[in-house]
């Protein structure tokens, strides 16, 4: 996958996540957590970009074993860092409802799908 393709995929993912976030506002109190939506979007955007560039580096160097290890490490770190992000938000902002987790889950889902697609394309090359 070329970097331009990744950039287009990233922009589309951000737009889709934003659309789903505002659509979720029709069904619950999610719009008051716009700050957490943006924080989690930046978090997953940064994480996905680091993984993209690391995987590009490893595959161009012919280190397929390292690529697989990096993918497994990514899953573990993403899980730990995600829990940490939610914990940090709860501790610093004290959300009044449980609806605050919806913006996070929207970003988690969209960026996980995007990342999986990008890594699959990188692995195919």
Number of domains: 1
**What helical percentage do the residues reach?**
over 70%
Task: Give the total of beta strands.
Answer: 0
Head-to-tail CA distance between termini: 8 Å
Instruction: Please tell me how large the radius of gyration is.
Output: 16 Å
How much β-strand is present in the residues?
under 5%
Q: What series of H and E elements makes up the topology? A: HHHH
Major sheet size, sense and barrel closure: none
Q: Summed up, what is this model?
A:
With 125 residues, the protein is mainly α. It contains four helices and no strands.
Draw up the topology in text.
Blueprint: H1 3-24, H2 34-60, H3 64-93, H4 101-124
Helix pairs in contact: 1-2, 1-4, 2-3, 2-4, 3-4
Overview of the molecule:
Helices cover 82% and strands 0% of the residues. The radius of gyration is 16 Å and the shape is elongated. It has one domain (3-124). α2 (34-60) packs parallel to α4. With 125 residues, the chain is mostly helical. It starts with a helix and ends with a helix. The mean pLDDT is 91.
Quick tags:
mainly alpha, elongated, single chain, 125 residues, 82% helix
């Amino acid at each position: 996958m070329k970097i331009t393709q990744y950039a287009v995929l990233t922009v589309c993912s951000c737009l889709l996540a934003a659309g789903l976030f505002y659509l979720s506002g029709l069904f619950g109190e999610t719009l008051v957590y716009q700050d957490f939506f943006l924080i989690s979007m930046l978090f997953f955007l940064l994480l996905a970009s680091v993984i993209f560039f690391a995987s590009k580096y490893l595959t161009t160097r012919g280190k397929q074993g390292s690529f697989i290890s990096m993918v497994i490490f990514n899953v573990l770190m993403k899980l730990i860092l995600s829990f940490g992000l939610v914990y940090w938000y709860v501790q610093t902002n004290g959300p009044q409802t449980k609806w605050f987790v919806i913006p996070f889950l929207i970003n988690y889902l969209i960026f996980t799908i995007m990342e999986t697609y990008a890594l699959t394309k990188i692995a195919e090359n």
